[in-house]
Write a structure and sequence with these properties.
This protein is an alpha+beta fold. Helix content is 36%, strand content 29%. The protein has an 8-stranded mixed beta sheet. The protein has a 6-stranded mixed beta sheet with strand order 8-2-1-12-19-18. Helix 8 runs antiparallel to helix 9. Bound molecules: adenosine-5-diphosphoribose (APR) and P-hydroxybenzoic acid. Adenosine-5-diphosphoribose binds next to helix 1, strand 9 and helix 8.
Amino acid sequence: MRTTVGIIGAGPAGLLLARLLHNAGIDSVVLESRDRAYVEQRQRAGILEQGTVDVLRAAGAGARMDREGLRHDGVELRFDRRRHRVDFPALTGGRSVMVYAQTEVCKDLIALHAEDGAPLLFEAEALAVEGATTDRPRVRFRHQGTEDVLECDYVVGCDGSWGVARKAVPDSLGRGFERVYPYSWLGILADVAPSHDELVYARHDRGFALLSMRSPSVSRLYLQVPAGTDAGAWSDEEIWDELDRRLETDDGWTLRRGPITQKSVTPMRSAVHEPMRHGRLFLAGDAAHIVPPTGAKGLNLAVGDVVTLARALTHRRDTGSGALLDAYSATCLRRVWQAERFSYDMTTMLHRDPGATPFEDRLQVARLDRISQSRAAATDLAEGYTGFPLDA
Ligand code: APR
Ligand code: PHB
C-alpha cells in the first residue's frame, strides 16, 4: 500500500486531518486499531472553542453540530457557596464556545469519510513507524490478522498518549515534560435535564465538582475523587449526595437527579513531548500532549495541530517549500504551552490537593474572588477558555 500521508489513529486529530487533506486534494490513509463502534461510543469531553467550531464548519463537517450543538456564552464559578458568571462575549469581543460532544464530532467525520473520503481502516493496528528520517517513511501494521506495510511521503502519529508513533523518536532527540495530579474525575451521564443552563465549575473544601451537559435532556457531571478510585465504588445515591454538597449555594439553587446511565474515572495528567516532529514523522493531538480536562482543551489542541499541519503540507505541495513543515513543531508548541498553562491554572485553582495547607486553601478562594472582582482577571479566564488563536 502506498499513500502521500499515512495517518495513525482515528480520534478527532486523525479524522480531521484526513478531512482537511482530502479537501486540499492530498491523499491519505487512516489506520485505526479499534473498531468503528468503539470509536463512535467512547465518552470524552464536550466543549468546542470558537476556533474549532469555525474549522469544522469550513471543513464541511459542521452541519449537525450547528443543528444540535448548544452555544454557550459563559460559565459559572462556584466557591464559598457563592456563584459568579464569566460572560465570554462581553469579555472577549464576541467569542463563545459550543457544547457538542467529541464523540459526535468523530461520528460526523467518520460519516463524511464513508461518503467520499480517504481509506479509513478500522481494526488496523500500527506496529511501528520505520524510516522516519528517510524519504520513504513506512508504517508496519496488522489488519485482519495479516501484517502489511503502508509506504508514505509523510507519517502523522495521531495515535493518542499510548500510541506507537512517538516511540519512533529516539530518546536522545526527544524530551518529555509531565505532571501527574493526585486526583481523578469520576464522570457520570444522567438522563435528566441539566440543572443550570451553563457549565458550573465548583471549588469546595471536599473537592471539585463540574456540572456539564450533552443535550437539553442529558446531564454530564464530574466529581474530584482520589487517584486510583474505582467507579464502581460509588453508588448512584452517594454520587448525587456528594454533587449536592459541592454545588450547594446560599440562594436555594437545587440539583435535579435522574437515572445514571454511565460512570467512569479519568486520571488527570499534563504532558508535552518535544519536538512534535522527527524527520518525516509528525505528532499531533494526544500523541504529543495531554492536558487535564478542567480547561476542556484536549480536542481543541488536537484541532490546532492538524490545521497547522494540513496548511504546511498544502504549502509544500503548492510551492515546494518545506518552511511551514520545518516550523510545525515550534508553531504548535507555543499554543500547546499556553493551553498547558491555562489547564494547570484552572486545575490547581479548583481542585483540593490532598497535601494542601489551610494557607493554600485560602489562596484558591482568593484567586476565584479576584476573578469575580476584576474585569482583567475575568478576561484572562475568558480568553483562555474560548481559545488561543490558531494563527499565533
Ligand atoms: N494503531 C492504530 N491506531 C491507534 C494505535 C495504533 N497503534 N494506538 C492508538 N490508536 C488510536 C486509538 O484507538 C484512538 O482512536 O488512535 C486514536 C487516538 O485518538 P484520541 O485518543 O482521541 O486522540 P486525538 O485524536 O489526539 O484526540 C485528542 O481526544 O483523548 C482525547 O482528551 C483528548 O480531547 C482530546 C482528544
Ligand atoms: C464535558 O462536558 O465532558 C466537559 C466539560 C467541560 C470540561 C471538561 C469536560 O472542562
